[in-house]
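All the exercises in this workshop are built on plain-text protein records. Sequence and backbone structure share a record, each on its own labelled line. The structure tokens are whole numbers drawn from a learned vocabulary of backbone shapes. The record below serves as our worked example for the rest of this section.
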Amino acid sequence: MPRRTRHHALFDRLRTPRKLPGFLKAASVCVLVAGLLSPLAQATPAAAATASNDYCGGQCSDILPPGENGNATLAQVLLNQIFGTQPAHAEDQLGPYNNLATGYSGLTDAKINTFFNDSSFGVASDQVASTESPAGRSDVTIVRDKKTGVPHITGTTRYGTEFGAGYAAAEDRLWLMDVFRHVGRGQLTTFAGGAASNQGLEQQFYRNAPYTEADLQAQIDNAVANNGSRGQQALADANAYLAGINSYIDASDSGRYFPGEYVLTGHKDSITNAGTIDHFKITDLVALASVIGSLFGSGGGGEVSNAVSLLAAQQQYGVEQGTKVWESFRERNDPEAALTVHNGESFPYGTKPADPQGEALPDSGSVTTEPLVYDATGTGASQSASAASAAATATALSSARRGMSNALVVSGKYTASGHPVAVFGPQTGYFAPQLLMLQEIQGPGISARGASFAGLSMYVELGRGQDYAWSATTSGQDIIDSYAVELCQDDYHYLFHGTCTAMDKVEQKNSWKPTTADGTAAGSYTMRVWKTKYGPVQYRATVGGKKVAYTTLRSSYMHEADSIIGFQMLNDPDYVKSPATFQSAAQHINFTFNWFYADSAHTAYYNSGDNPVRPSGVDPEFPVWGQAAYEWQNWNPATNTADYTPASQHPNSVDQDYYVSWNNKQALNYTTASWGDGSVHRGNLLDDRVKKLVAAGGVTRTSLVKAMADASLTDLRAEDVLPDLLKVVNSSTVTDSTAAAAVAKLQTWLTAGGKRTETSAGSKTYADADAVRILDAWWPLLVKAEFQPGLGAGLYTALGANLPIDETPSAAHGPTGSHAGSSFQYGWWSYVDKDIRSVLGQSVSGPLAEKYCGGGSLSACRDILISTLKTAAGTSASTVYPGDSLCSAGDQWCADSIVQRTLGGIKHYNISWQNRPTFQQVVEFTSHR
């Protein structure tokens, strides 16, 4: 059966013209034409903005596909669906982004902006497309450039500046902002339709952040109260931003140029204009922030899964050896891991205690996942709904946060100009419209250009200031702990500090009916979460025969609003003036990120997040008893605050020779929550290339972009594991003709660089396509044949739940399923690498506790590899790439290709696979204030 591509598309029903005639009959042609011609802004010529505060010397660039414009009128949506026409600036950054994959080999500094945008401040006078004073205000102007339509917001007052930011955000992303405020509140299906993907999306986030309106407001009140004048300024900025959003809602409603999705989902009438678009309120911003924080800025939560695999290891090998085996696969502090801070500094966190205390490991076989969905009816109880719910649960409870960003930063000591060079950005998936939006904001206390999440763009979140730039990657250190609370009285009461305490029940009841956009039949369900002082209940089990509930407590829970202060500081030119002040700003962000900085003279790095201080005997890898002795130090359950590790104990650095990050390990002895920080990690693809550039010296923007682009097309397994696999296979002459032919193809591909790249631009056919197919088919076969006999089926399966076997571009992985771009973050490549090297007799630091391939026998291991290789060679492309709603079976290029996942009515063409940031900057500042 063909693999089905998983969609978060709200408009799958509009994918083909045959779905539309019934709707068109009900719509007036005059209304459609009027909608098409309605201006999104009143445009008049404008003078160029001043750029006297820009110290980048024309050497700052950025890119964010598919395009800046994420809003479309009803007529524009229909024309796109029927004829493929695009609204202005809806996909004009998609082509340049795509073209780097085949164009980077001939890159020069002069050609960088063929593939990126010039991100200099201001707009040249001959490049001004339009200017507007939103709502007729005299204290703010929004200028849009001809090339990309990016808003350049300039205010003379702080209020006006933020009003303009809100207005521009609504112009470019109103529908998307509305979608995600409903996701954050667990109300997506009621708002946008009951498609199984919508059900899964709202369930994924509601399980971990079941906030009430009072919870959301409390976050705002606490953030303001605890941050003095900056807190007050943040509140004022947010209110001005909201006023701008709501002003645009009113203007677009009365002018009838609001996003057409409101009509297609039944919120507005295309003929009478009846219906409403609800104004945004300040708690909506916190709901949005909770989604972004959950997706990209929290690590941990896998303690129960860890316990299950530990028990399986102990059952397979006995307690002592089983624990050693488990620890070797966990790779908490693997000596061969790629490091961001690689100068030998140690930052101990999350390390294994010598004498663990308070562990509450479940009785074998007793763990059950806490239900979320109740009273389902209609399509809320269908088989596809159940599958979506199961997938959402697995994602929500995993410690792995996929597909999150990379960075390459080189000190000026090793560059041609003597100034630092950086190529960095967040890998946030591919959506239409994009989750991020570009903007420039200039006003009192704000001076920045870059990307912000739609609906949270009162500040630039990743970008550049006057003489510095910054970016982030997901770090994933453990800020989530699991507690076993002993039940009393019934399943909904638990012991808290010796008192039988009732759990709090939080519910969200959703129902939906068919719309033009989503024809899913009517249905409903209730999402129900039981909350304790130790967080929401996620599992039930027994421990030593006692009934318990396992909860998860996250340090950023009820604190998503707090990070606004750090972003405010990053935008303030009077605050960020040096590496030290940059690091100080990043310290005010409680999400788990790696932050990178470059100005004309210095580079810097800081790992952010509220890392709770645990009692010395608590092992954060496993659940502990919900008792005072094992709680975070000075934890206050009323506010969910505690003692956090000081900034000096977070990995940090200034002016290291270079920094790379692709979600790899931060520093020595700093343990992340997710598995896979071993000898082979996709971070090695960057580290190996940048290390060579630095050794040679004279690094330029061009050479660093080339290094990033080259890594983005490379199959990690081919570059770092395949050579040793072939050593085993070739340890004696390969006599089988099928195996010999496969080896020859793999070796040829390896010699050519092991890349998944087109034969030529636009060919949609891979060079060395057969070798790529063979490795894709071989990898899961060889991993299973190598490890399952020794581990046993139970432990092999349990470890696979901790760390997936593979993550190819065509696999259903990442935050959006298949066609997601981000690849090779999680897999068993390090395990295969260490085991094969051990079998070959090579030196291995931090080896696995046992030898697995062929039981440690080279000849037996070779037999296994050749046998599975022959099977892989005979596996057809249609089996390896089974096809989906976009691709026919066997279409290798299409299976790997990147899709801008539709979250609105506009769709785009798929592009060739690249494993790179969604938003990306290339910066080299030439001077400093």
The CA atoms of residues 18 and 412 lie 58 Å apart. The two ends are 62 Å apart (CA to CA). Confidence is low (pLDDT under 50) at residues 1-50.
